[in-house]
Amino acid sequence: MPPIVPVVRAETFYLPPPREPEDAWADTPAAELVYRYMEYRTQRRLVLPAGPVDETYFARINQNRWVADCVCGSAQVVSPTDPRYGCTECGWGWCALVFPADPAAVEAEMLLTAKPHLRNWWNPDDPANPYPPQPDPPTDPAPEVRP
């Protein structure tokens, strides 16, 4: 039986470098972990967004990772434990993130697909969803009976 690979969240994706203790970033909120990670990887200072913006993004699962896409074309791994998104590329943020009412149920549903790279999920209300829910077909009214 293949190993169970859980859906990846920011807390398990953006980790401190190997030279630091595993819990070195434990006090960092999930939405801010990408900034710590990018500072380390790019060796440049990144400033957290100053405050919220009037923008809402939908979180989705892409190849087994919770992600959010920015208007600039960038994307980051996100987490339902901290539903905010700030872009490390263009500096846009903090945007509110929309997660499903029960993220754990969606993650459990994803585990039914054995291969993690095939696990994808879109919020049905997301206007960018390439597979929006289809409305129920209209029912045919009762046929007219003519005398």
Question: How would you characterize this protein structure?
Answer:
It is a single chain. With 147 residues, this protein is α+β, with helices and mostly antiparallel strands. The chain contains three helices and six strands. It has a three-stranded mixed β-sheet with strand order 1-6-5, with no helix packed on it. Strand 3 and strand 4 form a beta hairpin.
Quick summary of this structure?
By secondary structure, the chain is α+β, with helices and mostly antiparallel strands.
Key traits:
147 residues, alpha+beta, 3-stranded mixed β-sheet, 3 helices, 6 strands
Fraction of helical residues: 10-25%
Approximate shape: elongated
Strand order of the largest sheet: 1-6-5
Structural class by secondary-structure content: alpha+beta
| Number of helical stretches of at least 4 residues | 3
Order of helices and strands: HHEEEEEEH
Mean pLDDT: 92
In whole angstroms, how far apart are the ends? 67 Å
Secondary structure: number of strands: 6
Radius of gyration: 20 Å
Strand content: 5-15%
Major sheet characteristics? 3 strands, mixed
Low-confidence stretches: none
Write the topology of this structure.
Elements: H1 10-13, H2 33-42, E1 56-58, E2 60-62, E3 65-69, E4 75-77, E5 84-85, E6 95-98, H3 103-110
Parallel strand pairs: 1-6
Antiparallel strand pairs: 2-3, 3-4, 5-6
